[in-house]
Specification:
heterodimer, A: 432 residues, alpha+beta, B: 134 residues, mainly beta, five-stranded mixed β-sheet, 2 helices, 9 strands, 7% helix, 60% strand
């Protein structure tokens, strides 16, 4: 007859089996792998999409990038850059969001919480334009060897998250203040002057209705009178509206709205995102605008899932394409000339945080290749890390990696802590 | 070149109110209004009434294709649009309202108003009133 505790025996036996399997697995790895501790970091930043693709590819970091936020500022920027439209600029950099500059309406604040592709694209789409005088060594120059280089770049988001709770809360509070302001605005007793002007409006309304109903007037006569009364009405309304706009500034609702609006920041919830950036550099070697060459180009796709800090998983992925890059990532020893070279690099990072931060697991990988030359093979690197905080300032760690050259390495204290691991699942308490 | 660029600049009246009359007929054709708000990123809230009847209350952002009533039903009545636009930190200090009315025998009516705030977070009240006559 089976004991009622037989399942516990089985469970304990299973745990031991799992632990022994792990020991066997990691021991096998340790035999095959080098015993050196792997470099546990992969620098994905080098694949990161640039803030301004045009300036990045152009190789200049203009200290004074023009960033107009409306059409007037944009026109002033162009006017200054072209010496009042009389010459082509020598060194000029501008970054702007076309939909937000040229389309005056359609993107009120509430729309910035939208996840619809049209809204996300239009609001995030940015153009960077740069013009620089450079020599063949990619150095900014102003001598006879210099020629014009122009960079153009675009970037936009494809997927974004809605606002954070804090941003939603501020938006709701601002809305509440605006409702109170509209209530105040409709209060004609806010001052005797406003009340008097509102009374004049009532008289004009009555007059307009009477004229409209007057069957003795011809259509032409009626239009003429109504047009004249409308002009009077417009003047009265303008005076009333100006006064109301002046008085409303003294109300609590106005002050509250101003407080929120003047510090309003858009923050988004954690979650999935996807961004794209691209750009290219055009050279005008003969200093003529009817002949140009593409000297550099690039495209970046960045996406992932930001899961936050606790009990969550975060993933980041980047794919980068470069044409004639200044430096080839896959060519550490600089064997290749960069002429007509295209490279494709990619990286990914996953991070799991669980058990209130006591358990972390991370995996990182990076891939690099030269697309149109056979001299360098594609290569990749992978790193896997596990860390468990067992308390009392002790951590159980394991790291495993594969380098670009195919060498596998491992590190951590997991294998040496096997006796310690055996304590798992038993009722034996670990004393201080 | 300069002229074509300058033609892109906002030509809206620097004012925050307007009154006008709009001719209607005796048909059952709908009068439809649209309210667009600028500049990008600004926060707006609007109320629309015909006489004392509310057609839209405390609407966030823009109002698209709001039916005001048929030509014959709105004759002799007043349409009132009240909007508050609050300037949000960052970006331009311009505020802008574009009001469009369609459906009457004279076709489309457009009114554009704009004001620039003096400080970030300031609000502007816009008021547009239309008298329907026939």
């Amino acid at each position: 007859m089976k004991s009622k505790y037989s399942f516990l025996v089985k469970t304990t036996a299973m745990k031991k089996l799992i632990i022994y399997s792990m020991v066997l697995y990691f021991t096998t790895i340790s035999v095959n792998a080098q015993t050196s501790k792997p470099d546990t970091t992969i620098n994905l930043d080098l694949l990161k999409a640039p803030t301004s693709p045009a300036f990045n590819l152009l190789g200049v970091s203009p200290s004074d990038i023009e960033r107009p936020t409306d059409i007037n500022a944009f026109l002033v920027s162009i006017q200054n850059g072209t010496n009042n439209y009389t010459s082509f600029p020598k060194n000029y950099a501008v970054e702007f969001a076309p939909w937000l500059i040229f389309k005056k309406t359609g993107n009120t604040l509430d729309k910035f919480n939208s996840r619809a592709f049209k809204d996300v694209f239009q609001q995030s789409f940015q153009v960077s334009l740069g013009i620089s005088q450079q020599n063949l060594d990619d150095q900014v120059a102003d001598d006879s060897t210099a020629f014009t280089r122009s960079g153009i770049g675009f970037k936009f988001s494809l997927i974004r998250q809605p606002w954070s709770e804090e941003t939603e809360k501020n938006f709701t509070a601002l809305q509440k203040a605006q409702v109170a302001m509209l209530d105040e605005f409709e209060n004609r007793n806010i001052s005797t002057e406003v009340a008097a002007l509102a009374e004049q409006e009532e008289v004009l309304r009555d007059s307009l209705v009477l004229v409209d109903r007057d069957a003795t007037l011809t259509a032409t006569e009626k239009r003429a009178i109504i047009t004249r009364l409308s002009q009077q009405f417009r003047q009265v309304k303008a005076r009333k509206n100006d006064k109301q706009n002046e008085l409303i500034k003294t109300t609590e609702a106005y002050a509250e709205a101003k407080k929120i609006a003047s510090s309003f920041k858009v923050e988004r919830k954690r979650g999935g995102y996807l961004d794209f950036a691209t750009g290219m550099v055009l050279d005008f070697p003969d200093k003529r605008f009817n002949y140009s060459e593409i000297s550099k180009a690039g495209a970046w796709l960045t996406g992932g899932y930001d899961g936050g800090n606790n009990n969550s998983i975060s993933i980041l992925g980047i794919v980068r394409y470069l044409y004639q890059p200044s430096k080839i990532f896959a060519d550490e020893s600089n064997v290749l000339q960069t002429n007509d070279i295209s490279t494709l690099d990619a990286g990914a990072k996953a991070y799991l945080n669980a058990l209130k931060g006591r358990f972390t697991l991370s995996a990182e990988a990076i891939y690099r290749s030269v697309l149109n030359k056979d001299l360098i093979d594609p290569s990749w690197r992978f790193i896997f890390n596990v860390e468990y905080d067992v308390g009392m300032n002790q951590k159980l760690t394991f790291s495993f990696g594969r380098n670009f050259d195919g060498v596998i390495s491992k590190g951590g204290n997991l294998v040496t802590a096997l006796n310690f691991i055996k304590g798992f699942g038993s009722s034996k308490k670990i004393g201080k | 070149m300069a002229e074509s660029f300058n033609s892109l600049v906002n030509k809206a009246t620097s004012s925050s109110s307007n009154f006008d009359s709009y001719e209607v007929d005796t048909s059952d054709k709908q009068i439809v209004m649209k309210l667009e708000i600028g500049a990008p990123g600004q926060k707006s809230l609007s109320r629309v009434k015909i006489d004392t009847t509310s057609l839209a209350k405390d609407v966030n952002g823009e109002i698209n294709n709001l039916k005001v009533g048929t030509n014959k039903s709105v004759r002799g009545r007043f349409l009132l649009v009240e909007t508050v636009v609050t300037d949000i930190l960052g970006g331009t200090d311009d505020t802008f309202v574009k009001f469009t009315l369609t459906g009457g025998p004279t076709g489309k009516y457009v009114c554009e108003l704009s004001k620039t705030v003096s400080q970030a977070g300031d609000s502007i009240f816009y008021e547009i009133e239309i008298f329907f006559f026939g």
